[in-house]
């Protein structure tokens, strides 16, 4: 792992009020069968904390391996929750699909709401679960908005640790990422064992434009770590990586959003003196570009159960 680094958990450094936003990424969502007779679906919960106005929330599906995206609107009344047990089926009518979600409130969808982030702010979280005959086994995948950009420019990578990917014990780990940018990028990863020895260096994968990618780790590791880097010739990417470890005996998953890591030199420059400025924040304007390329489904009503 890089020498002389400081770990920065960006959201923990922010005041609680700043954790509300008008634009989020859910890096992974599914309605799809998996290995070892698993069946995955994604529950979606959107909370409108505004006490005096309704919000129309845009949900854009960015498919695995890229391709045509889809967008729908969901109305959430004041101080209320919109919820679905199977987001990809109920919102987009996908019987089998995997990818990521871009969730945002746009001024043009909310013309009577003041055009300020705080007035259009909401919360979103998901639970992607294996729906087995003995019950459900799920992993919380929260909405995030700070990702990786071109590593050579800003010196920021991201690391997930305590990772288990070892077949004889029944552990299987997938890594993945969603790229919100308009061009494909390269995601590099290093895998280290628990003692810091490098097992894999600079394994490189293509993350499609406005799309999602997922694969198994390229080597077995027990309680090791995975470090992610982004190479982007446009210097405009916003990439959100993750790891998910599955107990193959039960189908029980565990999800990690990697923590951003900054080199000391990049952290203490005048530009990056404030830790909360590190990383690539996806903006409402960038989200609009992605959703404008999507097929518009229109407004969808989530049914109570």
Could you please describe the fold and organization of this structure?
This protein is mostly beta strands. It has six helices and 21 strands. It has helices at 10-13, 87-90, 117-120, 151-154, 264-267, 284-292; strands at 5-8, 23-33, 39-48, 55-63, 70-76, 80-84, 97-104, 123-132, 135-142, 146-147, 156-165, 171-179, 185-192, 198-207, 211-216, 221-231, 239-247, 252-256, 259-263, 280-281, 295-299. The strands form four sheets. Strands 2, 3, 4, 5, 6, 7, 8, 9 and 21 form a nine-stranded mixed beta sheet that branches. Strand 17 (239-247) and strand 18 (252-256) form a beta hairpin. The longest helix is centred in the last third of the chain and has 9 residues, at 284-292. The N and C termini lie far apart (48 Å). Mean pLDDT is 88; it is low at 2-18.
What's the mean pLDDT score?
Answer: 88
Compressed to H and E, one letter per element, the order equals: EHEEEEEHEHEEEHEEEEEEEEEHEHE
Continuous helix count? 6
Q: What amount of the residues lies in strands?
A: over 45%
Poorly predicted runs = 2-18
Give the CA-CA distance, first to last residue.
48 Å
The percent of residues in helical segments reads: under 10%
Basic shape? globular
Oligomer: single chain
Radius of gyration: 19 Å
| Biggest pleated sheet | 9 strands, mixed
Report the strand count.
21
Structural class based on helices, strands and sheet pairing: mainly beta
């Amino acid at each position: 792992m890089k020498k002389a680094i400081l770990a920065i958990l960006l959201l923990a450094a922010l005041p609680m009020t700043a954790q509300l936003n008008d634009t989020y990424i859910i890096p992974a969502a599914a309605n799809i069968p998996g290995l070892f007779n698993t069946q995955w679906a994604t529950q979606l919960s959107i909370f409108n904390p505004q006490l005096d106005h309704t919000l129309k929330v845009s949900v854009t599906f960015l498919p695995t391996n890229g391709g045509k995206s889809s967008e729908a609107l969901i109305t959430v009344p004041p101080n209320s929750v919109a919820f679905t047990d199977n987001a990809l089926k109920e919102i987009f009518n996908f019987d089998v699909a995997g990818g990521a979600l871009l969730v945002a409130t746009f001024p043009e969808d909310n013309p009577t709401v003041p055009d300020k982030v705080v007035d259009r702010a909401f919360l979103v979280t998901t639970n992607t679960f294996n729906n087995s005959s003995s019950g459900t086994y799920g992993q919380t995948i929260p909405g995030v908005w700070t990702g990786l950009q071109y590593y050579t420019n800003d010196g920021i990578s991201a690391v997930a640790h305590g990772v288990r990917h070892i077949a004889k014990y029944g552990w299987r780990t997938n890594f993945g990422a969603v790229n919100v940018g308009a061009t494909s990028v390269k995601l590099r990863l290093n895998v280290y064992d628990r003692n810091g020895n490098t097992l894999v260096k600079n394994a490189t994968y293509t993350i499609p434009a406005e799309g999602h990618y997922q694969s198994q780790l390229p080597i077995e590791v027990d309680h090791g770590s995975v470090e992610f880097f982004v190479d982007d010739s446009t210097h405009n990417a916003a990439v959100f990586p993750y790891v998910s470890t599955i107990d193959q005996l039960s189908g029980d998953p565990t999800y990690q959003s990697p923590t951003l890591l900054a080199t000391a030199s990049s952290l203490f420059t005048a530009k990056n003196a404030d830790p909360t400025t590190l990383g690539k924040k996806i903006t409402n304007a960038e989200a609009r570009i992605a959703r404008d390329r999507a097929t518009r489904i229109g407004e969808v009503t989530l049914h109570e159960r």
